[in-house]
C-alpha cells in the first residue's frame, strides 16, 4: 500500500472486533515507531503494549470512561522517555512531577514566536519529547492501516492515573494512547480544511 493511500484510508476507529491482534503485527508497528526520526536522533520514547482486559478496563476509567479504550483488544501507551535526553533530565523531571507533561502557556507562546532561544533546556526537552513521540506514534497509525488494523489516538486521560495503573517509571510520563484492533466500523471521512486554508 502506498503511504498516501494509507493516509487517505485512515480513520479514527472506535469500534473493534473481538479478535486479538497477532503479536507479529504489533511488532511491525513497534518497528515502524523505532525507525521514526527524532531531534538529535535521541529516540526519546517508550511504549507499553496493553492487552490484559482488567488493565484496559482501568485505562478506560482513567480515560474519562471512553468505552472503546476497554473494548479495543490492544492499547499502546506512548511515553516520553526523559532519561533519553541525558544529563539535564533531573530538572525536567522536577518540572513534570509538578503536573505531568503540562507545558506552561508562556513556554508555548515563546515557542510559537518562532524561536526556541528563549526556552530553558527542560522546556525544549518537553517540546522535542512531544514532537518525537507524536511522529513515532503516527508511524504506527499509518502502518496499522496497511495491516488492516484500526487505531484511535487518545489524549483525553489522566496521565497520573495511567502512570499508576501501568507502574510507569517516573521519567516516562504517558503522552498519548492508541487503541488498536480490527475495525468493526467504516466511518465517513471527517471534514478537513481546504489546501488554501492551511497554506500561509
Ligand atoms: C492528539 C489527538 C488526541 C485525540 N484524542 C482523542 C480522544 O481522547 N478520544 C477520541 O475519541 N478521539 C481522540 N482523537 C481523535 C480525533 O477526534 C480525530 O482524529 C479527529 O476527529 C479526526 O477524525 P479522523 O481521525 O477520523 O480523521 C485524538 C486525535 C489526536 C490527533
Structure overview:
The longest helix has 26 residues. The protein is of the alpha+beta class. It contains nine helices and four strands, in the order H-H-E-H-H-E-H-H-H-E-H-E-H. It has one domain: 3-Layer(aba) Sandwich (NADH Oxidase). The chain has a four-stranded antiparallel β-sheet, with helices on both faces. Flavin mononucleotide (FMN) binds next to strand 3.
Quick recap:
The protein is α+β, with helices and mostly antiparallel strands and 200 residues long. It is built from 9 helices and 4 strands. It has one domain: NADH Oxidase.
Secondary-structure topology with pairs:
Layout lengths: L2 H7 L13 H12 L10 E6 L2 H10 L5 H4 L2 E7 L8 H9 L7 H8 L8 H26 L3 E5 L4 H7 L8 E8 L13 H4 L2
Helix pairs in contact: 1-7, 2-7, 3-8, 5-7
Flavin mononucleotide binds next to strand 3.
Amino acid at each position: 500500500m502506498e503511504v498516501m493511500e494509507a493516509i487517505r484510508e485512515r480513520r479514527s476507529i472506535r469500534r473493534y472486533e473481538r479478535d486479538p491482534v497477532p503479536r507479529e503485527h504489533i511488532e511491525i508497528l513497534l518497528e515502524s515507531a523505532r525507525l521514526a526520526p527524532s531531534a538529535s536522533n535521541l529516540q526519546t520514547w517508550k511504549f507499553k503494549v496493553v492487552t490484559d482486559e482488567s488493565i484496559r478496563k482501568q485505562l478506560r476509567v482513567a480515560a474519562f470512561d471512553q468505552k472503546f479504550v476497554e473494548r479495543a483488544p490492544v492499547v499502546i501507551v506512548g511515553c516520553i522517555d526523559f532519561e533519553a535526553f541525558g544529563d539535564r533530565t533531573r530538572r525536567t523531571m522536577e518540572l513534570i512531577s509538578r503536573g505531568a507533561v503540562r507545558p506552561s502557556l508562556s513556554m508555548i507562546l515563546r515557542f510559537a514566536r518562532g524561536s526556541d532561544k528563549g526556552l530553558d533546556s527542560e522546556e525544549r526537552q518537553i517540546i522535542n519529547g512531544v514532537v518525537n513521540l507524536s511522529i513515532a506514534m503516527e508511524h504506527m497509525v499509518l502502518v496499522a492501516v496497511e495491516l488492516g488494523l484500526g487505531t484511535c489516538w487518545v489524549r483525553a486521560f489522566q496521565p497520573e492515573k495511567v502512570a499508576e495503573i501501568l507502574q510507569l517509571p517516573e521519567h516516562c510520563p504517558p503522552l498519548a494512547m492508541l487503541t488498536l484492533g480490527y475495525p468493526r466500523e467504516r466511518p465517513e471521512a471527517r471534514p478537513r480544511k481546504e489546501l488554501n486554508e492551511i497554506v500561509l
